[in-house]
Amino acid sequence: MGAWAAFASQASGWDDLFPGVDVRLVTLKLNFFIPFFDLFLTFMGVCDASKESCDAILHNRSSLAIVLGGAKEALDAHAGDVVLFLAERKGFVKVALSNGASLVPVFGFGENDLYFQGQLSDSFKKEYNKGLDLQFQYFEGVEYFNIILAYFLNEFRLILSLGNLLSVPNYRPKK
């Protein structure tokens, strides 16, 4: 949600803070196979996160925003707690090295508080999702007019923090 607010919409005031910096949010290629959702993503300027797509975006002098995380992080997502498996997420560094692109760490505090997760036990979720690259979550939403709407966000503050620019040398491995 934080990446969406910061890079795919104008909610964070990104264009005011960094005028002229064109940022493309990238997501799983699988999201582009969902009917109508693919059109929405394309309309918002979101691209798929394949290496080829990332290389093309950086070659065209645009920046890209990559959300680190996946099924493991989603399994351990609990309100007030954040678990990241960064040691297993190195692809974005390889893309930056091969394109000489700088890295800017961005973190959204409070993202796990935006949704109430369902009461399925953690052991059940881990067993159900074993071997999958996807994480199927059950969310409980906010109640309006005596109807529980699962995809309305809870009223929590989301704080986006931007780190310092990390310059990366241009390194193309020999083939």
UniProtKB/TrEMBL annotation:
<keyword id="KW-0808">Transferase</keyword>
<keyword id="KW-0443">Lipid metabolism</keyword>
<keyword id="KW-0012">Acyltransferase</keyword>
<keyword id="KW-0444">Lipid biosynthesis</keyword>
<keyword id="KW-0256">Endoplasmic reticulum</keyword>
<keyword id="KW-0812">Transmembrane</keyword>
<comment type="similarity">
    <text>Belongs to the diacylglycerol acyltransferase family.</text>
</comment>
<keyword id="KW-0319">Glycerol metabolism</keyword>
<keyword id="KW-1133">Transmembrane helix</keyword>
<protein>
    <recommendedName>
        <fullName>diacylglycerol O-acyltransferase</fullName>
        <ecNumber>2.3.1.20</ecNumber>
    </recommendedName>
</protein>
<dbReference type="GO" id="GO:0019432">
    <property type="term" value="P:triglyceride biosynthetic process"/>
</dbReference>
<keyword id="KW-0472">Membrane</keyword>
<comment type="pathway">
    <text>Lipid metabolism.</text>
</comment>
<dbReference type="GO" id="GO:0005789">
    <property type="term" value="C:endoplasmic reticulum membrane"/>
</dbReference>
<comment type="pathway">
    <text>Glycerolipid metabolism; triacylglycerol biosynthesis.</text>
</comment>
<dbReference type="GO" id="GO:0006071">
    <property type="term" value="P:glycerol metabolic process"/>
</dbReference>
<dbReference type="Pfam" id="PF03982">
    <property type="entry name" value="DAGAT"/>
</dbReference>
<dbReference type="InterPro" id="IPR007130">
    <property type="entry name" value="DAGAT"/>
</dbReference>
<dbReference type="GO" id="GO:0004144">
    <property type="term" value="F:diacylglycerol O-acyltransferase activity"/>
</dbReference>
